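> tool_call: predict_assembly(chains=two)
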Amino acid sequence: DTAVSQTPKYLVTQMGNDKSIKCEQNLGHDTMYWYKQDSKKFLKIMFSYNNKELIINETVPNRFSPKSPDKAHLNLHINSLELGDSAVYFCASSQGQGVGYGYTFGSGTRLTVV
Amino acid sequence: AQSVSQHNHHVILSEAASLELGCNYSYGGTVNLFWYVQYPGQHLQLLLKYFSGDPLVKGIKGFEAEFIKSKFSFNLRKPSVQWSDTAEYFCAVNAENTGFQKLVFGTGTRLLVSP
């Protein structure tokens, strides 16, 4: 049983296209996140949702739109893809926020924009 | 700005050498501290975490880390590395003064262990 699953694992697409990445967690966690890992391996938070409510939008271009239909799912839709969007996108979840709450990460989606 | 610093960007060791990777953070107040490992082509795996209590934390695969509050540090150690420890290592922090709302990562340390 995969705790945090992302699909697809690899995504190759042309500039200007629109694509979505899906994330699902079966841990019963309340909070979900999207992180971006760039070509230099730097990991930065993009979005955070708690019980379907947006908590953090970390100065991400509005071409990126997260959607959380329920607390077990957090999808990421990207419009008008650009070369600079090429990265590995990680979904994560946590049971709560505060002392003692850890994170579980998905296996990542490698997006390549050509 | 609040941040997490990993000063060693690349570390090269021979097998059986001892390892220490530095991590410093600039957040005040209560913090949760983590070390993650990313093996080539793979996802993030949790090595160990510190929430409270004993500042010396033991994790998987023989790794340990020590939280020194006065130095704002959480250095990762392993007495004897193996070739299979070749990976990218990330320190991460979430902090009370950001409402524990986000996990902030350091820039990572690439470890290469030669056989």
